[in-house]
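Appendix B. Chain record.
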Amino acid sequence: MDVISNIIDTIIKSIGGIYPISKDIYNILGTILSIIVIHKTFYFIIGMFFTRKFRPAKKKHKYAICIAARNEKYVIGNLLDSIKKQDYPKELLTVFVVADNCTDDTAEIVRSYGAVCYERCDLEHRTKGYALEYLFDRIEEDYGRMSFDGYFIFDADNLLKSDYISKMNDAFDSGEKIITSYRNTKNFDENWIASTYALHWIRSIRTNHRARSVLRLATNIQGTGFLFTNEIVKDGWHYTSLTEDRALTADAVAQGYMISYQDEAEFFDEQPVSLKVALRQRLRWSKGHLLAFVESGPYLFINIFCGRRFLKTNWNTDNNRKTNNKGFRNKCKILLESIRHRFASFDTLVQLTPISFINLCRWLLVSVLIYSCYVYTNGIDNLALFGGGTWLARILRGVFDIRINMEPTVGALFVGMLVSIWLRLLYRIGSYFTNIWIAIYLFIVEDARIKKMSVWKKILYSFTWPIFDIIGRYTTYVALFVNVTWKPIPHESRVTIDDLSKGK
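C-alpha cells predicted for this chain:
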C-alpha cells in the first residue's frame, strides 16, 4: 500500500512541478486566442453606425425561389402568399418546393398556390441539404439550372416583406453573387426561448453582417433568407451535411467569393418555443459547425497563406478568372483582392474554430488538474476567493476580501480544484450579467423593426438572453462525442405578413 501511495505522490508532484511553465503557456495561448478575435471588436463598432447600401437595380433579373418543406401545412401557404405579394414582376419568379418525406397535405397546398412541387421520399437521407440536392436535380431536368440568374433559399415558415425581392435584386444587380438579408422573427414575444433566437439573429446582423458588408468581406449564410448566383449550382447542390449553410459559407469563402448583406431586405421566420426542440436544434447546429470546421478548415487555412492556389471546386466565377496583371493599377487591384480573400478566409476559419472547446481544455488541464497538483506540493498562499477580472469579481472582492491559505496536503489538492471551479463559475456569472447589455442595446437600436411588446417583456428577455450562448457552448462540448441526426423543427404559427405589417 505504501508503494502505491509513493507512486501516486510522485506522479502528483511531477504534474504539479510543471505548473509554472504550463501557466505561462496557458496565458500565451489565451493571448493568441484573444488576438485572433480582436477584429470582432471593430466589427461591432462599425456595425453600430454603418451598413452597405445598394443603388436601385438597372435590370430585373430572373429568379427561382427554392423551398424545402416537410409537413409544413400550417405555414407554407402564408409564405407563398407573401411571395405573391412581392412588388417584383411575377413573370421573373418561379417558385419551387420540394415536399420532403411529407405525410400531410403540404404538396396539395403548394400546388393550389401555383408553385412547382416535387415530392421526395427518402427516409435514409433526411437533411435539408439532401432535399435541396434533389430539388436542384429536378430543376436541371425540367428547366435547366442556368436558365435562372439566381436562386433564393427559404424555409417554409418564412414570410417576406413586399419589397424583399426588389431589395435583394438591387444587391444582385450591383454584382454581388451571394447575399444574405435581415432576419426578423414573427413570434419574438411568444416566450423567452423564441426571444433568445430572435436577439441572436439581430446580434449577428449588428456584429457581423453590417461590418463585413461595408468592408467587402464575406459574412456567413444563416440557413435561410439568402440569394446566390446560378454558377454556384451549375453542377448541382452538394451541401448535404447537418448544417448546409455553414458548409456553403466555408466553401464559398475558400473559392474567393464575397458574401454580402442587404440590410433593406427583411424577412421573418418562426423560432422554437420548446426547450427540448431548442436543445435538439442547437446540438445539430453545433455538430454541423464542427463538421464544417473539419471539412473546410484546412482549405481556409491554406488560403490564408497561399491564396486561391488550392481549390476544392472549379466554379466558373469572376473571382477565379485570370486578371490582367499589367499596369500599376491592376497590380494594386490584384494585391487588394488577395488581401481581402486571405483575411476573409482567416475570418471564416475563426468563426468555425471551436474556441470554446479549446478554452475548456486548457482550463481543465492547467487551472484544474495541474494547479491542484501544484498546491498539493506547495500549498495555497493568499488566494482570493473572489478572484478574477470581471466587474462582479471586483465588486465582491472589494466587499468580501476573503483569502485562502493552506499547507501542502491532500486537502489543499481538493480545495485548489474546488476553488478553480468556483472561480470559473464566478467568471461565467459575471459574463452573464455583462451580456445582458447586448440585449438592451439591440432593443434600443432595432426598436423600429422589432415586434412591439411591453417593457416588462423586454426586461425579461434581456435577462434570459445570455442563456442562448450558454446552450451553444455546452452543445458544442456534447456534439464532439455524440452522433447527431437531423430531425424536423415543428412550425405551427399562423401569423401572416399582413399581421406583422399591421402590428408595426
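Further analysis of this model is presented in Appendix C.
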